[in-house]
Amino acid sequence: MTIKRSILIPGLAGVMILSACNMSTGGRPLMGGNIGRDNADKTEIRVGKDEIADTGEMVLPALRPSSGEQILRRTAYTASYNKNTRLPNWVAWQLTADHTDGPHKRKGLKFREDEDVPEPRATDWDYYNSGYDRGHMCPSGDCKWSAEAQLESFLFTNACPQVHGLNAGDWNEMEQQCRRWAEKYGRLYIVSGPIIYKGNSKTIGRNKVVVPEAFFKVVLRLGDNPRAIGFIYKNKSGNRPKGDYVNTVDEVERITGFDFFPALPDDVEDRVEAEADIEEWL
Question: What percentage of the chain has pLDDT greater than the value 70?
Answer without folding.
Answer: 80
